[in-house]
Amino acid sequence: MTGKAERPRTQVNAMTQPDKTANLKSLTRAKDADPDWPSGWHTLEGGIRVGRYIDPKFLQLEFDRLWPRVWQVAARVDEIPAVNDFTTYEIGDQAVFLVRAEDGTVRAFHNVCPHRGTALTEGAGTFAHGNIICPFHGWRWNTQGDNQYVLAREEFHGGKLCNADVALKPVRCEVFAGFVFINFDPDCIPFEAYIAPIRGFLEDLNIGEMRHYWWKSIPIPANWKVAQEAFFETYHVPATHPQLETGAADFIFGATMEEEYANFSHHRVDYEAFEHGHGRFYAGANTPMQGKVNMEGQTNPVDAMADRLQLLVDGMDAQVLQADVDLLRTLRDKPIPEGSSLGAEYIRVLYADAAVRQRPMPKPTPETLGMWGGEVAIFPNVMILPQAGNAMIYRVRPHATDPDRCTFEIYSTRTLPAAAERERAEVIPVTDLADPDQVYQIPRQDLGNLKRIQKGLHSRAIRQVWLASHHEKLILAMHRELDRYLKE
Ligand code: FES
Ligand SMILES: [Fe+2]
Question: CATH code for 200-234+269-487?
Answer without folding.
Answer: 3.90.380
